[in-house]
Amino acid sequence: MFWSGARDGANGKAERLTVEGLEPTRQTKTAGELAAMIREDLSKVDGCPERRVNVTVYGIPWNAMLMFGAAAGSVPSRAELQRFFEIIKERLQRLYDVA
User: Contacts for 44-48 with beta carbons within 8 Å, 24 or more apart?
Assistant: First the structure.
C-alpha cells in the first residue's frame, strides 16, 4: 500500500491524498456455483416458483440469464423476479470472477 499527499505549508491542510495498491480482491467461482448462488437468493423471493427456474452463467466477464421452464407454471411475478435477478447478478458481479 502506498500513501501520497501534499500539504499546504501555510495552514497544514492536505491538498490531496491518494491510496494506491488497494484493488478490491474478488473471489473466483465456477459458473455453476454462481448460478446456484443466484437461484438460492431468488428462491427467497415471494412468488418464485419452486421448480424450473433456470439460471445460466456465461462469458468473461461473466453475465447471467434467467429463464422459467414450463414446469414452473404461471409466474405472475415474472417482472418482479427479473428485477431481483438483476440486483442479485450485479451484486455478485462486483464480488466474484468466473473460473
Answer: 45/77, 45/80, 45/81, 45/84, 46/77, 47/75, 47/76, 47/77, 47/80, 47/81, 48/77, 48/81
